[in-house]
Amino acid sequence: MTKRRIALIATGGTIAGAAASSSQTLGYQAAALQVEHLLADVPGLDALADLQAEQLFAIDSAHITSAHWLQLSTRLNALLADPAVDGAVVLHGTDTLEETAWFLHLTVRSDKPLVLTGAMRPATALSADGPMNLYHAVAAAAHPASVGLGTLVVFGDNLYSARGLQKRDSTPAAFDADQYGRLGLVKGSHVHLYQRPVRAHGDLPLPDSLPSVHILHAYADLPVTQIEAAAQGAAGLVFAGLGNGNLRPDWLACLARLRQQGIHIVRSSRVPNGTVIRDGEVADSQHGFVSGDNLPPPQARILLQLALASGEPNLQGCFDRH
Length: 322
Ligand code: SIN
Hints:
Layout: E1 4-12, H1 35-40, H2 45-48, E2 49-59, H3 66-81, E3 87-91, H4 97-107, E4 114-117, H5 130-141, E5 151-155, E6 158-161, E7 166-167, E8 175-176, E9 182-187, E10 190-193, E11 213-217, H6 224-231, E12 236-241, H7 249-260, E13 264-269, H8 284-287, E14 290-291, H9 297-309, H10 315-321
Parallel strand pairs: 1-2, 1-3, 3-4, 4-5, 11-12, 12-13, 13-14
Antiparallel strand pairs: 5-6, 6-9, 7-8, 9-10
The structure holds succinic acid.
């Protein structure tokens, strides 16, 4: 089989991090090393694919904004439209990787494989996880099984869909998704796929900018004044409620009032594996709320932003489809 051509975009993060000593895994400088240095640490990559690498950003992913998502998605759409390119890999900091991956999942219009990865230990650390994650990401991007799955994330030998992914641990086993998000695993150059995503991806238009949407997290004593403050100037709110998106009566009254003022409300949950059932615990249809399904609140926020930016008339339908 001819070798696939994989475009690799580096954006910074711990995978490009450097510290003064090899035992230092805290207090290091993220995004310190350029992509050429990272590739040189991974022998055997050229046997997997022909790589073309570029350094788009060199930042800690805490500094990733929606402007970076737009730029990255534009670049990936251009690269993947090139008939000479068979797939792409993005190296990204882990702290906000799940947001970038989901944004790309929704906006990159290509069936070609797109795989994100990062690392929890800086490149200079003993047992740095970046080189193997990078190797696995290229293996997945070059593998025919990854075609048509939308944006994937490879981390710690696991292969995930971008949908539902969350950083859930600050140790090297950083990522997980609820029971629906893990698709398979990667071991060396072997890619084992066990499930395929069934929801739509890559079909939302890339806007020039995103509307303002904020997230609120339910907790005992949360005053409605906080909800009202978050809604100031916002086009929408994602409310991470209790359990099945449950709302205290005064929160419900406040959100219903805000909806009447034209602010879009997505009812989500603070429960990591929680599916919010439309009209289950709260009369969403009556109040004009959208159920956020089982999307983690940061991903529900991005979907609402893209749906609003595209002028989508049926927000619930958009959430049900993605
Ligand atoms: C970052 O997100 O850029 C720093 C942390 C990490 O990559 O693990």
